[in-house]
Amino acid sequence: MKNRLQALFQAPKKDILSIFFTAGYPHLENTEELILQLDAAGADLLEVGFPFSDSLVDGPVIQESNQVSLKNGMSLKKLFQQLEGIREKTQIPILLMGYLNPVLQYGEEKFMQKCADIGIDGFIIPDMPLPYYNKYWATQAQALDLSNILLITPETEPERIKEIDLHSTSFIYMVSSNSITGANKDLTNQTVYFERINQMNLQHPRLVGFGIHNKETFRNACKYSSGAIIGSAFIKHLKQHDTDKDSIQKFIKQLR
After folding, report:
1. Would residue 73 count as lying in a domain?
2. What's the first-to-final CA gap in the chain, in angstroms?
3. How far is residue 148's CA from residue 165's CA, in Å, rounded to a whole number?
């Protein structure tokens, strides 16, 4: 039986739209609400961020959402409580995204088991080295059918990219540029990078992240990948419009 991520990427579907948001932002108890609204609006995949006080790779927009979330009282324990029963209401693929430190504090084996019990499909932990994952996580993650989503950037060496492809189980997160999240780069400047990755004939599909913020950047990213990830632009939307259902529907529709 295919898991939700495998089914998504193996389906005859193009231009996959993944939305990231920080759990506990703008309000502590809106995690389930946002998941269900984004699913209804037409998102294909969700990345639910668990906050950390020192999120170095993130730009000011997501950093602020982390600070607000932590101030609101969000934690991994609280997030897992909020996600209990989510699979009774939606089957959209869900990843948890954050930094290794909160997971270490929570307990790594406990974290993976809880993800599996709730129905989370995998995780993105950018600061977890692949050798560390292979040594301490891989056996349990594979047994629980959890995907570890690995990142590549324009500076990632070809041999490293091949290694990441070898150890991936669903898709590769292709960072569009060497910048922080939310940087509104002109993605046409990354064409050489995107084409170089395509020519490598990797086994796994890619989603482009960082700098995707409107229909133009989404469509351009999709020319060179299976889809794209939008985070900072959606966090900005929440700051301006809160969790208003109609505004979220409009946000998703204007991307396609």
Report:
1. yes
2. 30
3. 11
CA distance linking residue 101 with residue 91, whole number of Å: 29
Structure tokens belonging to residue 202: 């990797």
Write out the catalytic residue numbers.
47, 58
Q: CATH number of the domain that 153 lies in?
A: 3.20.20.70
Q: Is 22 helix (H, G, I), strand (E, B) or coil?
A: strand
pTM score: 0.94
40 occurs within a structural domain: yes
Tell the residue number behind the tokens 């906050």, with chain if given. 51
71 within some domain? yes
Q: What is the pLDDT of residues 126-184, one digit of tens each?
A: 999 999 999 999 999 999 999 999 999 999 999 999 999 999 989 999 998 765 454 45
Helices (H), 84-231: 100-106, 108-118, 130-136, 138-143, 158-167, 191-198, 215-222
Specify the pLDDT at position 182: 45
- Token digits of residue 142: 């594979």
Residue 193 lies in a domain: yes
Total tally of structural domains belonging to the chain = 1
Amino acid at 194: F
Q: What is the rounded CA–CA span in Å between residue 153 and residue 209? A: 10
Q: Is the pLDDT of residue 211 over 70?
A: yes
